[in-house]
Design brief:
alpha/beta, seven-stranded mixed β-sheet, three-stranded antiparallel β-sheet, 12 helices, binds pyridoxal-5'-phosphate
Length: 380
């Protein structure tokens, strides 16, 4: 039997991660502060973004992005946020957590939000757009940014797939009011589970630090390590959440960050091999990358007819790709959305081919040869 090829395989530099974790255990500090602040500093240095706050997940970050903008801008319940139907449900749940209304716009050939479709969905109640950089792609983010500025809308960038994505040499995130990254185990910067929220506005950055620690105005590490005799005196300003990241995850993140550019380079090489092998293949459409983007290449996506049958054929050959994503309006709770024909078309056809740093050129060749054969037999 052939060796299975999986969509994602997390790659941890085990000895280096264990050294970071050991430091935390020996110091007796595994929580908020210590490694979390070091990781935030390193993320700011790496991305050039002005602020970064480390979290337990990107889902928590998207929730807080919506929550803090809603509070500051005075949005009312039922106000609208334009979002993508082709995303992980976290993106759209974040809108509903705050009793706002997600309104889906259609995607373009990059499977990212199409600025023309966004424009057609704007109403007097529209307050923000959440742009998802699918697979690390920037799509037409520059046009979306300009549209948001022109129409007075806030821009939230769901950069769960975008750690290391750059445009003209600059890391993504500078365009948005707030950018949220995921460091889930299968993402480009793998920890077990964590994320980062990067507000442009220093006040919102200061505020989010309290929101992720139950509304408390001083973190425990700062209190423990302060000279103050009265460490138990702190204020609680609001009903915050317990969403902050911890030092064990931050230690893993510090290790992964050292390898992020090299890992993304390998991902782009895998994508180039996929491109070469699939270039002339009939019946297999490739999802392009925006030409001005140096993508993190979280995903390599193709479009085929009779997708589920093609997937079954690949599985028979011990190849296990994925689907990013099913059109969220397939889900009962998002069923009342306006039609997005391009997203629906992609949702029925899209396949994410295996993409992780342990893959080799011969793995890519095997995936492509099998995909070409299976597609021809299913469609032909
Ligand atoms: C596009 C997108 N947004 C948000 C998330 C949520 O990330 P996390 O698992 O860190 O909460 C994910 C995770 O898969 C994602 O793919």
């Amino acid at each position: 039997m052939q060796t299975p090829i999986q969509l994602f395989v997390p790659h941890f530099r085990v000895e280096e991660c264990l050294a970071e974790v050991r430091e935390c255990l020996e110091k007796g500090w595994t929580g908020l502060g210590y490694k979390t602040t070091e990781f935030e500093r390193r993320w700011v240095a790496y991305t050039g973004l002005p602020h970064a706050h480390f979290l337990s997940s990107a889902t928590a970050g998207l929730h807080l992005a919506v929550r803090l903008l809603k509070d500051r801008e005075g949005w009312a319940d039922g106000d609208e946020v334009i979002s993508s139907p082709l995303t992980f449900v976290s993106t759209n749940h974040a809108i509903l957590y705050e009793r706002l209304r997600p309104v889906f716009a259609d995607v373009d050939e990059y499977l990212c939000l199409d600025p023309a479709s966004i424009a057609s969905r704007i109403t007097p109640r529209t307050r923000a757009v959440i742009f998802v950089g699918l697979g690390g792609n920037t799509g037409r983010l520059a046009e979306v940014t300009a549209l948001c500025q022109a129409r007075g809308l806030r821009l939230i960038l769901d950069a769960a797939h975008m750690s290391g994505s750059r445009v003209a040499g600059r890391h993504v995130g500078h365009q948005a009011d707030v950018t949220v990254f995921s460091f889930h185990a299968v993402k480009n910067l793998p920890t077990a589970d964590s994320g980062m929220i990067c507000f442009a506005d220093p006040e919102l950055d200061a505020s989010v630090r309290r929101w992720t620690w139950l509304g408390i105005d001083k973190d425990t590490y700062a209190r423990t390590n302060s000279d103050s005799a009265y460490k138990w005196y702190y204020d609680v300003e609001n009903v915050g959440y317990k969403y902050h990241g911890n030092s064990i995850m931050a230690g893993m993140g510090l290790v992964a960050l050292r390898y992020l550019d090299a890992d993304n380079h390998h991902r782009r090489q895998l994508a180039a091999w996929y491109d070469d092998a699939l270039g002339g293949a009939g019946g297999i459409g490739r999802v392009p990358m925006s030409p001005d983007c140096e993508p993190a290449r979280h995903l390599y996506q193709v479009l085929v007819d009779r997708r589920d049958e093609v997937m079954a054929g690949l599985n028979d050959a011990q190849i296990f790709p994925g689907v990013h994503y099913r059109d969220n309006s397939h889900y009962r709770m998002y069923a009342d959305q306006p039609p997005c024909p391009r997203a629906r078309h992609a949702s029925d056809r899209v396949i994410s081919l295996p993409m992780h740093v342990k893959l080799t050129e011969s793995d890519v060749r095997r995936v492509c040869e099998t995909l070409v054969a299976v597609t021809a037999s299913r469609v032909g």
